[in-house]
């Protein structure tokens, strides 16, 4: 299988992301004020840079945990089947939980993950998603906090990959495929 040639056009600059992350963290800090320890759950792998930046701006004690779900593989379309590849290490019953996701697309992943985590009876469970593509939604699901609402484009960077590359770009870019000669 060959990978098509592509270029990446910047969509959201590193500076805009940093400013938005700061605002989100301020809202989250206010929302959870008084919580003794917030459990911040990053959905691997796409959220790893976002969660790292976000927790450093949250002015509350936090515990960081990770969960890996898969609905994508290496293909560019979502399947409806969501598998848990790596579960949380910690208990969340009775705790305040914030799920951190890179992109809400069809909504299948988030709806599956939040249903699973709610079954463990956290005190409160909210979601912070960096990106939202509402035009692609197939399951009704909404993050409590969203960084940016974007059109239906395939994006990479700031933790988000294309075939396991480009996660280390400091900005969010859209993938534009070019003609192979
Ligand atoms: P959903 O289950 O909402 O359709 O898919 C969510 C997951 O699909 C995201 O967490 C992300 O991993 C992947 N995804 C959705 N849109 C994009 C995109 O534009 N680029 C990349 N690299 N992954 C995406
Ligand atoms: Mg994801
Ligand atoms: Mg991926």
UniProtKB/TrEMBL annotation:
What keywords does the record list, in alphabetical order? Cytoplasm, Glycosyltransferase, Magnesium, Metal-binding, Nucleotide-binding, Purine salvage, Transferase
Which cellular component, as a GO term, is one annotated location? cytosol
What is an example of a GO molecular function annotated in this UniProt entry?
guanine phosphoribosyltransferase activity
Required co-factor(s) are:
Mg(2+)
Subcellular location per UniProt equals: Cytoplasm
Domain (Phosphoribosyltransferase) ranges:
15-162
Q: Does the keyword Glycosyltransferase apply?
A: yes
Q: Which reaction does it catalyse?
A: GMP + diphosphate = guanine + 5-phospho-alpha-D-ribose 1-diphosphate; IMP + diphosphate = hypoxanthine + 5-phospho-alpha-D-ribose 1-diphosphate
Associated pathway: Purine metabolism; IMP biosynthesis via salvage pathway; IMP from hypoxanthine: step 1/1
Indicate whether Electron transport appears among the record's keywords: no
GO BP annotations, alphabetical order: GMP salvage; guanine salvage; hypoxanthine metabolic process; IMP salvage; purine ribonucleoside salvage
Q: What is its main location?
A: cytoplasm
Q: What is its EC number?
A: 2.4.2.8
From the UniProt record, list the coiled-coil ranges: none
PANTHER family in the cross-refs: HYPOXANTHINE PHOSPHORIBOSYLTRANSFERASE, HYPOXANTHINE-GUANINE PHOSPHORIBOSYLTRANSFERASE
Give the record's family classification. Belongs to the purine/pyrimidine phosphoribosyltransferase family.
Q: What name has this protein been given in UniProt?
A: Hypoxanthine phosphoribosyltransferase
- Give the gene name: hpt
